Amino acid sequence: MSCLLSFGHGYSARALTPRLLARGWTVIGTTRSEEKAAALRAEGVEPLNFGAEIGPALARADHVLVSAGPGPEGDPVLNAYSPALETHLGAMRWVGYLSTTGVYGDHAGGWVDEDTPLAPATRRGRMRVEAEAAWQAICDRTGAPLHIFRLAGIYGPGRGPFAKVREGTARRIVKPGQVFSRIHVEDIARVLEASIAAPHPGGRIYNLCDDDPAPPQDVIAHAAELLGLPLPEAVDFDAAELSPMARSFYAESKRVRNDRIKDELGVRLAYPDYRAGLAALLRQERES
Predict the structure, then answer these.
(1) Superfamily name and number for 3-153+183-209+257-271
(2) Residue 249 has what pLDDT?
(3) pLDDT of amino acid 186
(4) Mean pLDDT of all residues belonging to the chain
(5) Would you say the pTM of this structure is higher than 0.85?
């Protein structure tokens, strides 16, 4: 029986979990919260307090997934567990690291792929580049096959635009030429499952995004249309009152290619564009 040890078992990892459990896997997920530990237990995951002894879990696992993001001090998993990882990673059949397409930086709406040089425009992007390099280094030393997944903007159940549109707080922030790529969380799980089933011997980098990079205001407008509600106000980016975090997302504009997940992993996206994804989310809401 295979076992996945998932560090920072969050939104994307939890979408993968039922796919693995259905195949008889054991999933161990780290968390810092007792409340979340209870929720993971209810989902069939063995919770493990982050910071606790990790050796026994690593000894049981043959797959490792890292979802925890880096901070100013670097990657939290490597900071906490490097000695144990140095000992056990070499026995893993697959190591996955969830990164971000933010590592590519700004391309003024142009296309990027997995071979595009990394030039992050934000501090978060630079920390991700450093974390990717740190994981690559430890996997090179141990011989573990590292698979890096660079995720575009994630949406899915509980992370759609409908709530703000219904509340009347949604705005269409307009910045000429701005486009973002996106990925539905179930398509993230689909790609991870495919990679686990066919790991690349030397590891690989994959972009995870849908087929339709689009301006953010178009997504909000379509959500309002699906709900039958008035079109939210259009606000010029320069005049918009945005938090520093929200404003930083507009520092980069690019279109992300996803050919590799299709050509190498045989993945066919369930939600190839935001229109298909939003329609499915609304159906799920109405059926629940």
Answers:
(1) NAD(P)-binding Rossmann-like Domain (3.40.50.720)
(2) 86
(3) 98
(4) 96
(5) yes
